[in-house]
């Protein structure tokens, strides 16, 4: 099964500076682009993961952390709400989207994140498009609550499913190096020198640098990894061919 995974940044589909707002126009365009990729059969299977945007990040910021029952429950609640909206739009655009609550299929054991990948694999084999998200999850070893970002989830899924492609759709058009979008970015060579550009608004899981750092050790079992902007044409290219603008991330 050729699995393609796409992470839709929370700040692409919602405004991180304004709590609980969804950018439906962008979400619809991205959903249409993903549907075209499915129609063109550029992948056998697609997994979608989205971030927290002005939902999860705002709530965690307000509580200061996710490590209280109230903060955990509120985070889970608003993230489900965002996921339901994302799934609804994807369904309207023709994608066989199935929302999967991350907190129900993932857990931490200390620093390691475990995902019930068999369930994800089974539903994609059945022709569905799972839609997971960055969420608050339980650490079953420490009996605490932690955030599993959408980036954690998609790097881990891409690694476990040996994805052919992992595409990060972000608010910026790629990884900036020296004021320009780098064509290629090597995790082993270029990560040390990367200066991070700010992540506007509420963000509790870090920006581009954190996103890239999570790929270390995982990237070798993934076919190709791209970071691109949210232009639907570029998203389609990144999933099916090669993006005109964007960064290919290599080991
Ligand atoms: O936006 C974080 O996911 P991300 C989700 O992918 C929460 O970093 C709950 C803040």
Keywords:
251 residues; alpha/beta; 24% strand; binds Isopentenyl phosphate
- The counted number of beta strands is 14
Biggest sheet details: 8 strands, mixed
Q: What's the rounded overall pLDDT mean?
A: 94
Question: Low-confidence spans: pLDDT under 50, at least 5 residues?
Answer: none
Largest sheet, spatial ordering of strands: 3-6-2-1-9-13-14-12
Bound molecules: Isopentenyl phosphate
- Strand and helix order: EHHEHHEHEEHEEEHEEEEHHEHE
Number of helices: 10
Percent of residues in helices: 25-40%
**Shape descriptor:** globular
| Cα separation of the termini | 23 Å
Radius of gyration: 17 Å
Structural class: alpha/beta
Q: Which range does the strand content fall in? A: 15-25%
Fold topology:
Blueprint: E1 3-8, H1 10-13, H2 24-39, E2 45-50, H3 53-63, H4 69-92, E3 97-99, H5 102-105, E4 106-109, E5 112-115, H6 117-125, E6 129-133, E7 135-139, E8 144-148, H7 150-160, E9 165-169, E10 176-177, E11 180-181, E12 184-186, H8 187-190, H9 208-213, E13 224-228, H10 232-240, E14 247-250
Parallel strand pairs: 1-2, 1-9, 2-6, 3-6, 9-13, 12-14
Antiparallel strand pairs: 4-5, 7-8, 10-11, 13-14
Helix pairs in contact: 2-10, 3-4
The chain binds Isopentenyl phosphate.
């Amino acid at each position: 099964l050729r699995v393609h995974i796409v992470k839709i940044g929370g700040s692409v589909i919602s405004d991180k500076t304004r709590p609980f707002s969804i950018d439906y126009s962008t979400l619809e365009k991205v959903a249409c682009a993903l549907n075209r990729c499915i129609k063109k059969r550029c992948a056998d299977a697609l997994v979608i993961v989205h971030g927290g945007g002005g939902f999860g990040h705002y709530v965690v910021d307000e509580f200061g952390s996710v490590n209280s029952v109230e903060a955990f429950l509120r985070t889970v609640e608003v993230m489900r709400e965002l996921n339901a909206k994302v799934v609804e739009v994807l369904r309207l655009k023709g994608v066989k989207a199935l929302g999967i609550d991350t907190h129900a299929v993932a857990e931490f054991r200390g620093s390691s994140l475990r995902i019930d990948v068999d369930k994800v694999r089974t539903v994609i084999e059945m022709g569905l498009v799972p839609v997971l998200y960055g969420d608050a999850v339980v650490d079953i070893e420490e009996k605490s609550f932690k955030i599993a970002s959408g980036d954690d989830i998609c790097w881990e899924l891409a690694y476990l499913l040996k994805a052919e492609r992992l595409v990060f759709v972000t608010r910026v058009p790629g990884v900036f190096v020296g004021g320009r979008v780098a064509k290629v970015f090597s995790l082993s060579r270029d990560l040390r020198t990367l200066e991070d550009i700010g992540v506007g608004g509420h963000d509790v899981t870090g920006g581009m640098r954190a996103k890239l750092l999570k790929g270390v050790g995982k990237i070798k079992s993934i076919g190709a990894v791209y970071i691109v902007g949210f232009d639907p044409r570029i998203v389609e290219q990144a999933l099916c061919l090669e993006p005109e603008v964007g960064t290919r991330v290599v080991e």
